[in-house]
């Protein structure tokens, strides 16, 4: 006689998905390189960089541009007017940081670089992240670094 209405609704909303988005899970994610031969061409001053809302230097496209890490010029993506790609072809400046997801791309290697694993890229990635989100980037679980204010210097964990 008893009408069993066993409604067990379990809602598990995981907010941590946004971390995945930051690391570019959107399409065709491959492991980024942890080294690249073109790092020597990086600008010597990557502490002072343009803000993520800087328009393209050539066509004034307003958002989601790339920052050339060799000369700090801000140029639009291959999905807009390809000005960053043109810049690479004309000047051989291989390494650029995306202001849309803060990934670092090497045109010569044709691959993403792991900005948080490559020493010369760590500070510029950090700076760009803070400019974009007004907070420091989250630590990656894989690294398991102790949370201190001091930056670990020269401690690389090989696997
Ligand atoms: Zn442009
Ligand atoms: Zn450049
Ligand atoms: Zn490279």
Structural notes for this entry:
- It holds the Pfam family zf-UBP.
- GO terms for molecular function: zinc ion binding.
- InterPro entries: Znf_RING/FYVE/PHD, Znf_UBP.
- This protein is of the alpha+beta class.
- The chain has a domain of 102 residues: Herpes Virus-1 (2-Layer Sandwich), CATH 3.30.40.10.
- It is built from three helices and five strands.
- It has a five-stranded antiparallel β-sheet with strand order 2-1-3-4-5.
- The N and C termini lie far apart (63 Å).
- About 3% of the residues have low confidence.
- The site of one zinc ion has 7 residues, from helix 2.
Outline the fold blueprint.
Blueprint: H1 17-22, E1 66-68, E2 74-75, H2 83-91, E3 95-98, E4 104-106, E5 111-113, H3 119-133
This protein binds zinc ion (3 copies).
């Amino acid at each position: 006689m008893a009408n069993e209405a066993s409604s067990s609704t379990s809602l598990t909303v995981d907010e941590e998905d946004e971390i995945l988005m930051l690391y570019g899970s959107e399409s065709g994610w491959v492991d980024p390189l942890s080294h690249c031969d073109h790092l020597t061409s990086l600008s010597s001053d990557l502490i002072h960089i343009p803000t993520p809302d800087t328009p393209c230097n050539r066509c004034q496209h307003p958002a989601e541009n790339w920052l050339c890490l060799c000369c700090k010029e801000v140029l639009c993506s291959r999905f807009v007017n390809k000005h960053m790609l043109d810049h690479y072809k004309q000047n051989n400046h291989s390494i650029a940081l995306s202001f849309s997801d803060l990934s670092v791309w090497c045109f010569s290697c044709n691959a993403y670089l792991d900005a948080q694993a490559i020493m010369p890229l760590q500070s510029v990635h950090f700076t760009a992240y803070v400019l974009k989100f007004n907070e420091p980037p989250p630590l990656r679980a894989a690294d398991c670094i102790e949370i201190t204010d001091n930056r670990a210097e020269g401690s690389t964990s090989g696997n």
